[in-house]
Amino acid sequence: MRRDWEAFSFHLAIGVIAVLALILLVAPTAIVLIVSFTSGFSLRFPPPGYSLRWYVALWDAWQLHFAAMNSLKVAAWATFLSVVLGTLAGLGISRSSRLSAKLMDGLFMSPLILPALAFGLSSLMFFSALGLPVSPLTLIIGHTVVCVPYVVRNTVAALSQLDPTLLECSASLGAGKVYTFRRITLPLIRPGILAGGFIAFMSSFDNVPVSLFLRDAATDMLPIRMWQDLEGKLDVTIAALSGVLIVFTIALIMVMERFTGLSRRLA
Amino acid sequence: MQTASNETQGTASGGRALVVDAVTHRYGSSTAVENINLDIRAGELVALLGPSGCGKTTLLRIIAGFIRQTEGRIILGDEVVDDLGPNRRRIGIVFQNYALFPHLSIAENVAYGPAAQGIGKAEREAETKRLLELVKLGHLADRLPRQLSGGQQQRVALARALAIKPRILLLDEPFAALDKNLRLDMQIEIKRLQRLSGITTVMVTHDQEEALSMADRVAVLSQGRLEQFAAPTQIYDRPDSLFVNTFVGTANQLSGQVLASDGDMATIRLDAGAELRARSPGGVLASGQRCTVCLRPEHLEMTDDPAGFAAVVEMGLPLGATVVHEVRGADGAGIKVSEPRRAGTALRATGTPVRVRPLSPDLATAYPA
């Protein structure tokens, strides 16, 4: 009887904490989605009535479209470079047990730990010392640096799951190194690389600190544009845009989950 | 069998398929294998048998080309292959965990070797089909490895290894991952395929029954050294060393003293109180020397013969076809005696005095203590 009560109270406490955590995580997203359908002119919750007017307004907000295209382009380039460079780095690091490989691993991971603002400022100074003016190029390079750790980490993790006997087996069947890489290693670590690339893409897409320092005046980035719009006039269009981004992200996550088992890789 | 294998493997000079020539391998300061010599005939199935850490896996990996030995040579047919990487030795390997490529279908797994060697699609598909029929898995060609049972996976691994038309086949603990019932079926199956194809095969195992039942010859290894390389019956009946005698099968170890030594036989006085003749491998015993006599339980009998030594029954264990009695000799040594059991005969009671003797003198073997 006493034991039953202990078990019950334990499960109750855990359950309550879990529900609170869930509310804390999900509620803001839910509130933004609900507010985006407001018929009023403010971000007040709950909305006075419901309409699609802000989604219609979003359709005509060319400044946001322009910024979104910039952010997409930069994120695509940064992801592409991160995947290529990060995969190569991951291969090199995981195949070596030398101290230098461990150091390189730490170096590639450092952008995750270093404050992004400090990195943004220092890379701005670095580029100007090189005589490179801020441009889409510097922006892409900066984003690549902060995105590459995700690909490196996921590639190394995928490689550590790869049974080395498979590579020996491939060799014993007459395959050279390149053939083995193309037909065994790459297909088996591809889900890990894709998962890393996906996170890299998302982190580039909503990166603010690096973009603040490394973009030029003509390259308007979506997160910064959104902030400026909100700051100026508490624009409900931004809530509609947030709604679109949320749906877009959830769809992407579902696609990635289907192809790479993303949630297992992040656990 | 020998003639059949010579037809298919008629490459090697004098029917030799694989020579391990004075191979030594050291990891840092520790020696994994030391001066191993093996001369393996074409078509033979040889088992490398030994406890874990005896160097058998290292030797297999040296033959395969995954490890470069510190000293000695590996000769395949007439060719010294030390400078060839594993992908250029044309050695088929069935790995312990099968190492099937998880993302490729069964047919793609089997066709992998030929594809890597640039063999055309039509030829490769025909060969894959033939091999999958050979291992009776033609109907599963499009499945993925994880959809197959352990025994089926092993047959795929075997077909894949055979697809490269290997000069020799290496099996690394091939039955360790299978449950006991399946193991016997697969042992028969692999032996059948090995005879059918006549391919020279080297198998690594720690399971003595597996080695004795399947192999034409068994190489027993201990602590990196080759203890004996001979036919299974020879290994079992006429072991060369105390290690082989005790590792393969079970053996009672009795201590005694050499009374006289003549060549490879010796007369020994057991501490338990009897004189007996015993084989002395290599004739290394000198008279007066302390020695250990090994006698297998089934090579002993309990009689009334005064030539045997006195003992007292401690316990009887009926094991179906045989009955094992644990008896204690005058010097306190425990001895197991295994005899055929006749239905209806009672066990000998605890405390019964008996006399024990070997069935025949050449079944006792003496080693320096």
UniProtKB/TrEMBL annotation, chain A:
It is a multi-pass membrane protein. SUPFAM superfamilies: MetI-like (SSF161098). Keywords: Cell inner membrane, Cell membrane, Membrane, Transmembrane, Transmembrane helix, Transport. Gene3D superfamilies: MetI-like (1.10.3720.10). It is found in: Cell inner membrane; Cell membrane. GO terms for cellular component: plasma membrane. It holds the Pfam family BPD_transp_1. GO terms for biological process: transmembrane transport. Residues 68-256 form the ABC transmembrane type-1 domain. The chain crosses the membrane at residues 12-37, 74-94, 106-127, 133-152, 192-214, 234-255. PANTHER family: INNER MEMBRANE ABC TRANSPORTER PERMEASE PROTEIN YDCV (PTHR43357:SF4). Belongs to the binding-protein-dependent transport system permease family. This is ABC transporter permease. It comes from Azorhizobium oxalatiphilum.
